[in-house]
Structure formats: structure tokens, C-alpha cells
Specification:
Elements: H1 3-21, H2 36-64, H3 90-93, H4 98-123, H5 131-160, H6 173-180, H7 183-187, H8 190-215
Helix pairs in contact: 1-5, 2-5, 2-8, 4-5, 4-6, 4-8
Length: 221
């Protein structure tokens, strides 16, 4: 990668990270840092928009690529994140330590970054897919990257305030490789792929809401 291009990407990433922490554009009068509650509100809203987009995209793709059925007439769906241990239901998620729940959210987001990028390259060759659907797919991919940056900012804020311990570290290289580069994701039909993503995006939003309620208890949950 050329030095200038690398510097440009690093600058864009730094600007994105800064915007997650401010209630206005950098340099504006009255700019202030967000509280941890404000940060949670931002990432929860962002995750909600991602889930809404994925729901709309799934409905559109299902028209062009119906799910494959098995011998029992039921859709065959094996999501590439199925091997991840994720709590089903609010009651179970509330029992997970804050650090572990935060780590799980980041793992889910990381698990979709590369598959979504490949998915966008793949569907560009389908002439029957409307431009609006292609636009939604690209928007989702970009928004997942933005959301991961936002959750990382929330994590840093919680760590600096002593809300979570410093034991929460980044994912190991084996975790990243095992989740991002997935044969299962590449072998799924287009509608199944988005169905799986929609399922996980709903989990991310739910876990973020649960985490906020545990950390900012004065808000109604």
C-alpha cells in the first residue's frame, strides 16, 4: 500500500473515531464530549438502522433468490456464526459479565466485516438485482464498520471510567481469521446470507441495549 494512501485511510479512521465522541463537528463552537450514556444511545440507534436496512434488503433478495429447502420443506440455513456461543434471550444475556458481553458484540461485528465485503463484490454481477438493493448492501457494509468503531469507543470510555476492567483485550488473530474468512458464508445463497446477518444484527442491538441498562441503570430498561 502506498504511504499516501495508508496515511489517508488512517486519517479517515481517526476522524470517524473522533466523530463518535462528539455531539457536533470538530471545531464547532460548543463542542463537547459525549457521556457514556450518549455513546450507548448512538451505537444503539446505529445498530437499529443497520437491522432495518437488512430487513428491507432480505425482503428484496428473497424475491429474486428464494431460500433453498431441505427434504422436509424447510429452509436450509447454516450461518457462519452459528458456532459462536451467544445467549438466547434477555435473561441469559444479563447474566454474562460486562466484559464478556462487550467482547461478544465486537466478535459478532468483526465476524461480518469481511463476508459483507465479499458479498458486495458478488452481487454486483447479478444484473437482476435492483440498484436500490445494491446500494443497501453497500450501506450495510459501511455501517457495520462504523458501528464497530463506535462500540470500540464505548469500550474505551467504559474502561477509562472503571466500568469494565482492562482484561478486555482485542481479538486474537486466530479469532479474527476463523470468523472473518468463512467457507460457510461464501456458500450461502444471497437471501440466506442476509437472513443470517439480520439475525446477528438483531443480537448486536439487543446486547447493546442490555449492556446500557446494566451500566446506566437510571434509564428505563
Amino acid at each position: 500500500m502506498a504511504p499516501a494512501r495508508a496515511a489517508g485511510r488512517a486519517g479517515a479512521a481517526a476522524a470517524l473515531a473522533l466523530l463518535w465522541l462528539l455531539v457536533c463537528a470538530p471545531g464547532d463552537a460548543g463542542c463537547r464530549l459525549l457521556t457514556v450514556a450518549d455513546l450507548f444511545d448512538r451505537v444503539i440507534r446505529h445498530s437499529g438502522r443497520i437491522h432495518s436496512l437488512s430487513t428491507a434488503l432480505y425482503a428484496e433478495l428473497e424475491k429474486h433468490f428464494p431460500p433453498r429447502d431441505n427434504e422436509l420443506g424447510k429452509p436450509v440455513r447454516k450461518c457462519h456464526t452459528s458456532g459462536m456461543l451467544t445467549p438466547n434471550g434477555k435473561e441469559y444475556a444479563q447474566k454474562i459479565p460486562r466484559e464478556e458481553l462487550t467482547h461478544l458484540i465486537l466478535k459478532l461485528l468483526q465476524a461480518w466485516k469481511e463476508p459483507l465485503s465479499h458479498f458486495n463484490q458478488h452481487i454486483e454481477h447479478h444484473q437482476e438485482i435492483p440498484d436500490d438493493s445494491l446500494s443497501k448492501a453497500k450501506q450495510i457494509s459501511n455501517m457495520v464498520h462504523e458501528l464497530k468503531t463506535g462500540v470500540e469507543k464505548v469500550t474505551e470510555k467504559m474502561r477509562s471510567m472503571g466500568i469494565i476492567s482492562n482484561s478486555l483485550n482485542g481479538m486474537t488473530s486466530s479469532e479474527v481469521a476463523g470468523l472473518s474468512i468463512s467457507n460457510e458464508a461464501n456458500m450461502m445463497s444471497d437471501s440466506d446470507f442476509i437472513h443470517c446477518f439480520r439475525r446477528d444484527s438483531n443480537k448486536v442491538q439487543s446486547y447493546l441495549k442490555i449492556l446500557k441498562c446494566r451500566i446506566v441503570p437510571e434509564n428505563s430498561c
